[in-house]
Amino acid sequence: MKSLEEKLKNPVWYSLDDTHHKFLIQYDGVQFYLPEICSFGAFHDPTKTAKALTEHSKIAKKFFLVVEKETPTIDTNHVILEKKIDGCQMVLENHVALEITEDIVLLDEEHIDEVYNLIWLVMPGFYQRGGFKMGKYYGIFKDDKLVAITGQRMQTDDFIEVSGVVTHPDYTRRGLAKQLVSHTTNEILKENKLPILHTNKGNSAIPLYEKLGYKLTRDMNWWLFSRK
């Protein structure tokens, strides 16, 4: 059995081995989510990635490998490396209680389009409609529309990732994201699991996460590929 620390080093891999196994596409040494669910994949051995990426490119136009340190290999006849996003992992260290003053709603399937449209407005390219099936999503409504959300993404029996932290540009600087992240963190703790999250290095939201008790723990990088 793998330790929690080992799972955190490769969260996509172990999510697909565990809670999200039903979304798994498996190649020799590389694992991907179904393209309609999530664009992420993971590996242990970088010598295995070239063939797997070529195969996956037949069913997905763009996709990521998520990795702490290793550099994946590719077959440039079939796959293009578009960019590497330098990211980091944060893990809840000391839970900081926050008063929740907003009406936070557990979203359901009737909100899928609203969630999708809001995420693509703020962070285009990172979310598939089927991502709603990966975990619970919470939202805040203002003026009869969904203006801020958080969701749950990668998860195992040990941890759940806070993700999809998005606020409509017209409703920023009101503390909505802070309350949503705090609420989602509380809900994860109720399941006796460790809340984690990922973001890009230098993100202005990192101090907010730190105030809520999260601590930077390691690099976690996103290699974006596309079909040639």
Tell me what the structure shows.
The protein is of the alpha+beta class and 228 residues long. The chain folds into 2 domains: 4-88 and 223-227, no CATH class; 90-218, 3-Layer(aba) Sandwich (Aminopeptidase), CATH 3.40.630. Helices cover 23% and strands 35% of the residues. A 7-stranded mixed beta sheet has the order 7-8-9-10-11-6-12. The protein has a 6-stranded mixed beta sheet with strand order 1-2-3-4-13-5, sandwiched between helices.
In short:
By secondary structure, the protein is α+β, with helices and mostly antiparallel strands. The chain has helices spanning 4-9, 11-17, 49-56, 112-122, 176-190, 206-211; strands spanning 24-26, 30-33, 40-43, 62-67, 79-85, 87-92, 104-106, 137-142, 145-155, 159-167, 194-200, 214-219, 221-227.
Describe the SSE topology:
Elements: H1 4-9, H2 11-17, E1 24-26, E2 30-33, E3 40-43, H3 49-56, E4 62-67, E5 79-85, E6 87-92, E7 104-106, H4 112-122, E8 137-142, E9 145-155, E10 159-167, H5 176-190, E11 194-200, H6 206-211, E12 214-219, E13 221-227
Parallel strand pairs: 3-4, 10-11
Antiparallel strand pairs: 1-2, 2-3, 4-13, 5-13, 6-11, 6-12, 7-8, 8-9, 9-10
> Which spans have pLDDT < 50 for at least 5 consecutive residues?
none
Q: How much beta, percentage-wise?
A: 25-35%
Q: Which CATH-level-2 architecture of the largest domain? A: 3-Layer(aba) Sandwich
Strand arrangement across the biggest beta sheet: 7-8-9-10-11-6-12
Number of domains: 2
Q: Which series of helices and strands comes N to C?
A: HHEEEHEEEEHEEEHEHEE
